[in-house]
Amino acid sequence: MSGQILLFAALSVAAIVLAVVLAMTLWRVRKSIDLLERRVDESLRQFEMTAEDLRKTNALVRDILVHVERSAENVSHVTEGVRGFRRTLDVATSILKYSVVPVLGNVAGGLAGAKAALSHVVNRVVRKEGEHV
């Protein structure tokens, strides 16, 4: 019987040691899981903050693009206005070139001719008066 008691005692000690080792292992696994849980939680928070920053940046970029599009539309509008003004300026230049300038040339020529004629008449009248004296 003493062999059986020794065997049961050895098995009981082995079971106790196994239970203690298993309890310590489970305690370490639990601590590792808690640490992993904290790290995953912190990583998720960082991911959420990064996603929020990305959303804000995306909204800012979208706002900048809207302003760029408006600026491009304004430039296009100004360009069309300049083209319209250019057409108006071309028409005005054509009118000046083919209507006003020739008329002014004729008027200037007429005035020069009238001046020359008047000068000639005045000179003749003044000479004739000088001859009579």
Topology:
Layout: H1 2-132
Task: Give a structural overview.
With 133 residues, the protein is mostly helical. Helix content is 98%, strand content 0%. The N and C termini lie far apart (186 Å).
Name the features:
133 residues, mainly alpha
Gyration radius from CA atoms, angstroms: 55 Å
Report on the biggest sheet: none
Low-confidence parts? none
Q: What class would the helix/strand composition place it in?
A: mainly alpha
- Counting DSSP E segments of at least 2 residues, the number of strands comes to 0
Residues in β-strands, percent? under 5%
Roughly what percent helix?
over 70%
Given the C-alpha coordinates, what overall shape results? rod-shaped
Order of H and E elements: H
Distance between the termini: 186 Å
Distinct helical segment count: 1
What is the residue-mean pLDDT, rounded to a whole number? 86
Short description:
This protein is mainly α and 133 residues long.
